[in-house]
Write a structure and sequence with these properties.
Blueprint (H helix, E strand, L loop, with lengths): L4 H4 L16 H23 L4 H4 L2 H13 L6 H8 L10 H26 L8 H11 L22 E4 L5 E5 L4 H17 L5 H15 L6 H15 L11 H6 L1 H14 L2 H36 L5 H9 L5 E2 L1 H8 L3 H13 L3 E3 L9 E3 H8 L8 H8 L8
Antiparallel strand pairs: 1-2, 3-5, 4-5
Helix pairs in contact: 2-13, 4-6, 4-10, 5-6, 6-7, 6-10, 7-10, 8-9, 9-10, 9-13, 12-13, 13-17, 13-18, 14-16, 15-16
Length: 403
Amino acid sequence: MPLREDKHLSRAYFPDNLPPTIDLGEDVTVVLARAMHALGRLDGLVSEVENPSAVFSSFVYKEAEQSSQIEGTAVTVSDIYRLEVDELDEPPESEHERDVREAKNYVRALEAALDYLDTAGRSRESLTIGLVQDLHETLMDRGRTDEEDPLPGEFRPDLVHIEETDEYGRTQVRFVPPPPSAVEGKMESLLEYVRTGRGWPDLIDVALAHYQFETIHPFKDGNGRVGRLFVVLMLLCTDLLVNPVLYPSSYFKRHRDEYTDLLLAVSEQGAWKEWLQFFLEGLRRQSEESFVRAKLLVQKRREYERRYVDEADSVRLLATEMFAEPYFTVSEAAELIGRSYQTANRAVERLVADGVVTEITGNEQNRVFRAGEVMDVVERPPSELPNPTDVIERSSSFRLYDR
């Protein structure tokens, strides 16, 4: 929200350039080691799967869902998929439809960034100001803007502030990021640090960079979503992950107050250790949750392979390839498996008969199908998932192959 600079400029916070002067200490290094181990275990499981981007693409949608919900929306993974097949049961331009469209933009932004990194190279050197601005431009394309121009891809021209509401419902200024005149310089310094580092472990740099980005608050709107998306890109560009199968926003959403309070505490009190412990613990827990969902998806896919091993090739293909598109039309199924419309239609009907997919429109034409068992794994609340420790222990005694 814009502010009168003559009234609030004196309250603006200018973060020091990275890195801070801190001693990590044993408390941080222990959590760091656990987070690194959990990330490595997740990456190892995913790497054993043939064509992991097809099997686990829904995790990108999960991150889009969770990051959007932090901002107060009610978007679900299913909403985003339904928007893609023009079957979102919402009036055009309604508030929820705009929220879903913006969440879909999050998926588009990450996919575009991955295409860019495939060309430029997955390394720190590829993380530039131009990339950050492109992420924002894609994210804010025709999304939720509160009827104000979010200036897609442009740094904010005004002083802004972050508000909070007290116990009596009164609104007050919580934090004032640096003025617009300082934004570009601070972002250049941040991205220079991201590209070069200063000898800290990569995961520490990810945590430092996320704080710095959120504190600079470079855009008029969408800062949180761009910042959390950048976390995923840093994990990919530091070889901590090979595929975008982590959705850290889920942890930040469940601990939203602690998340925002610790970001502020770093600025006000220099609480770097507390922030690092929180951030690293979040990545550890989300790595474990992602491992459980990934394991369940792999098991479900192998179950379908065994069930349809003696069926027509088109049936087996659709049953195993629909993980990439759990909401689809017959035409999309045909494209997905590389078969004719008629052949794909027969395969779809076979899966409908088995209850593996369900038609959701009730129409005789322009039908849309949902892979219910796949979506159950993706959308199941964390509290209803198997205990990560149990799943990890069962997995440690053998290597799990997709085929």
